Task: structure prediction
Amino acid sequence: MSPKIHRIKKLQRLLKEGQAAFLCDPFNMFYYSGMKSTHAYMVVDSSGGYYFTDFRYLEDARENLKHLQVFDVKEKGYKYFLQEQQYSEILFEKDLPYYLYEQLCQTNLHLRAADKLLSRLRMSKEHDEICLIKDSVRAVSWAFDSLVQYLRITPYEGMSEWDVVKFLRRRMHELDWEGFSFSPIVAFDENASKPHYSYSRHTRLHRRSSMILVDFGFYHENYASDFTRVIFLQPPSPRWKECYNLLLEAFVLFEEQFSQLETAGEIDLLFRSVLQEAGYDRYFRHATGHGIGLECHEPPSLAPSSNVALHDNMVFTIEPGIYLPGEGGIRIEDMYCIQKGSLEKLTPYPRDMVVL
Result:
């Protein structure tokens, strides 16, 4: 059975009698159809799946989407299709554009946001998905290691944050992979105190520079990776050593106590408790991690309020950090998978402090 057919059947099992799911999110569309398009919609009901697109993708869709009934939107639009079927309820994604929501309202059918139901299926990764994610995170580990080795032998004074991004892009092109899974973060010195900083063409390393925070990922056959490490350009201060060792301590505790944790929120609270005990919790303001797959950020969120149950084949990142305004910041990010109730670390790069 094709993986795409299998996925549609899993979605069908979650639908109640008379319900249909309306999909337009590009990642959900690809997950269930296997085809990328800038203008397409899907309807899934108990009988099957239906794909609506325009003339630009129509021939390709009819050739390749044998598990779906394909319609030309000009000849049979999804709105009229839904009205013909007289479903009792239409389930839609939470990020449904308002103009599409208005069109669905015109069908006079009962509508209900059902993103939790739809995201539940993608949280459980299939074997092939996990293999692609492993390949992707191995590649970013290799790219980061090549950056460290380059900085060890190359005079880096005058190098910009943008130069580091270009270096990582060259490594990605050597692998002939699709692209970054998100806009990379390369933060020198005090810029590292901003968790979602980007990079600058103008900020450059100088003789007194102390740290580089690098957060990036690659797409490999549509699956993302996410990786963060800090490079210390000179021996770190006692305070940064303390902060770094706290993060390492939290990772060790997490891996030791994982079997006792039941929800994504409990993971977050474990990491936060370690920093709180040392007085650094106020310098850690974001979630501890997130799911990852076709999207770099997807459910579950590893935030304090998350009650999503941990289960087999779930893939997620762990990325605690400590950010000292005006001074800098550190973050360590690894990827994990749950297999047969046990935790598997997917990121091969060690968490040891990197000091040039």
Q: What stands out?
A: The chain has two domains: 3-122, 127-355. The two ends are 51 Å apart (CA to CA). The chain has a mean pLDDT of 94. Residues 250 and 271 are 6 Å apart (CA to CA).
